Amino acid sequence: MSKEVDQIRKIIDPADHIVIIQADNPDADSLASSLALEDILTDQGKQVSLYCGVDLPTYLHYLPGWGRVVSKLPKQFDAGIIVDTASQKLLEQLDRQGAKGWLASRPVVVLDHHSTEPDINFAKIIYRPPAVATGEIIYELAQSFGWQLSKEAMDLIAVAILSDSLGLMSAATSARSIQIIAELVEQGVNLPELESARRETLRREAELIHYKGELLKRVEFHDNERIATVTIPWEEIEKYSPLYNPPMLVLDDMRLAKNTEVAICFKLYKDGKVTAKIRSNYGYGVADKLAEHFGGGGHPLASGFKVTDGRSYEDIKKEAISVASVLLDKVEKEKAGETI
User: Which CATH topology does 206-335 take?
Assistant: First the structure.
């Protein structure tokens, strides 16, 4: 058992009430990991609260227990576990609610697998072992600590791993990731059943089908079509976000264009905030570096950022295209055996 793992246990074991915190951009890995931890720790007799500063998107509502996640941090708890992020920028709702200081006054553990440099300076332990998903980290901790996993916890861990690994096909998927899924299947996890539940959430309202067509018509191509962008104004965010996150309707289609390697979807908020979701094709994994340029982060093939300093959308878009072009040039030169 490593020193970090031992320190995590020393925080969790004496805590009677633990709050599990997700970032302000929850996804299937963060929610499934949170729910798995809740199940594991509850079985140990602990009180567990689930927190996320924003409403969970409806496409995650197929995960049992999503309704237990609250948007206000409890006033009384003994320890906190932040899952699937090590970035303070993704915990801004804690600041806005005046709850960050309250969290920082308790021992906090961060469990994350992203490559972005961590900056949660109030955490007692930031644990970031190589893993394709936070769910994989939780499984390994359970093995180290001798935690018993219920069928529900195993299902949730499988969902977390399969989600962030894109069905065990992402570049970050390791032999151990695949082995863990095999171990879960041996213990009763039914992968077709989980996939059926996930696919049911992919069914869309008719108006979203039409809206997707409108977005695809607005896609712009840059730098010899290597970069595709689309922009979603506040009016459309407000109208369609309750149904589904608009960028996710078109990002995969955008990077299927013959010459395109990077797709960027910008969202423009009424307060001037600009956010971007980025997807890169395999072999051109620059999404994380592009996001980090703007203070964001994520994975080489999937990342995002937000800008709140008042810069204009036009300037941000121009800069993003320029940086992406430089990053793609570097990849091309490396592929040709050159160096910069």
Answer: Diaminopimelate Epimerase; Chain A, domain 1 (3.10.310)
**Would strands 69-70 and 47-52 be described as parallel, antiparallel, or unpaired?**
parallel
Rounded to whole angstroms, how far apart are CA atoms 282 and 257? Answer: 14
Whether domain 3-199 has CATH 3.40.50.300: the reply is no
The structure tokens listed for 281 are 């094709």
Domains 3-199 and 206-335 share a fold: no
Q: Which amino acid is at 36?
A: A
How big is the CA angle at 326 (ends 234 and 169), to the nearest 5 degrees? 75
Any idea what the Cα angle at residue 118 is, between residues 16 and 149, rounded to 5°?
40
Nearest to 325 by CA among 274, 277, 290, 283: 290
Could you give the CA distance from residue 38 to residue 296 in angstroms, rounded to a whole number? 28
Bridge partners of residue 304, in order along the sequence = 277, 297
**309/152 Cα distance (integer angstroms):** 43
Instruction: Check if the beta carbon of residue 323 is closer than 8 Å to that of residue 287.
Output: no
Sheet with 220-222, side-by-side order of all strands: 220-222, 227-232, 262-268, 274-280, 302-307, 297-298
Query: How far is residue 27's CA from residue 33's CA, in Å, rounded to a whole number?
Result: 10
User: Domain ranges in the chain?
Assistant: 3-199, 206-335
**Residue-wise pLDDT tens digits, 217-241:** 999 999 999 999 999 999 999 999 8
Q: Please give the Cα distance from 36 to 54 (Å, whole number).
A: 20
Query: pLDDT for 53-83, tens place per residue?
Result: 999 988 889 899 999 999 999 999 999 999 9
φ, ψ at 29 (rounded to 5°): -65, -50
d(CA 44, CA 302): 35
Q: What is the rounded radius of gyration, in angstroms, for the C-alpha atoms of the chain?
A: 20
pTM for this prediction: 0.84
